[in-house]
């Protein structure tokens, strides 16, 4: 079963306190679900319709594991903390190898 990558791009942040609360909960939730952070932070460069806001890349053992992480109680608590504090784009893609 191929690995999967979770790509979380923040399109905009309207409440830095809510973002901070989300980050404190989301990181441990991803790790508990088997995620391994490969990159996170503001984009070094953004092209076309890309945004320089915070982007996170997390590796999972499979697509199923990544989707389960999203639906986990721990991650849902992180989402509740974020609330309307940001607009994001989350994608889960399957690795090629």
UniProtKB/TrEMBL annotation:
Gene3D superfamilies: 3.30.70.100. It comes from the Bacteria. Pfam families: DUF1330. InterPro entries: Dimeric_a/b-barrel, DUF1330. Residues 4-95 form the DUF1330 domain. This is DUF1330 domain-containing protein. It comes from Nocardioides guangzhouensis.
